[in-house]
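testing teh design pipeline on a random one, pls ignore if ur not involved
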């Protein structure tokens, strides 16, 4: 039957689609864009937008991590916990690097660049965990097919 190879191809191809490739923009992306689009923003306002985005991504990270661990075997859960602990060390080192590197630059814009980079590190981890959830969720409801980048 020729339909079977087609279905397998669709399933395999579909597994490569991440949440950022289909669906609605994630609400945190929308909130951050709205914050950043205020024409009266100062550099400090921009920093605040990214700091708040980082806090939001951190909350989202905890939610998706808990959702994922509830669906795992004890062995998989232990493995993810170890991976997450390693990632937290990586995150902390990245944050220190951003503070050192951008903090040594002249000009106020670099504080907003550092804040954006920090938020993006956490957002990237959220995307990775969503991808793991999506890879085993045949209903397609896990991430609501969120996109994490705008088309702008």
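output:
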């Amino acid at each position: 039957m020729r339909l079977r190879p087609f279905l397998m191809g669709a399933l395999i191809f579909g597994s490569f689609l991440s949440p950022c490739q289909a669906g609605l923009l994630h609400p945190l992306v929308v909130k951050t864009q709205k914050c950043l689009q205020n024409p009266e923003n100062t550099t400090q306002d921009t920093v605040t937008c990214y700091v708040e985005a980082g806090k939001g991504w951190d909350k989202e990270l905890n939610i998706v991590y808990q959702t994922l661990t509830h669906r795992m075997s004890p062995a998989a859960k232990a493995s993810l916990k170890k991976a997450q602990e390693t990632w937290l060390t990586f995150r902390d080192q990245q944050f220190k690097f951003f503070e050192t590197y951008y903090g040594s630059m002249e000009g106020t814009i670099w504080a907003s660049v550092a804040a954006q980079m920090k938020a993006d590190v956490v957002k990237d981890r959220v995307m990775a965990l969503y991808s793991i959830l999506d890879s085993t969720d045949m209903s397609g409801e896990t991430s609501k097919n969120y996109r994490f980048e705008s088309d702008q």
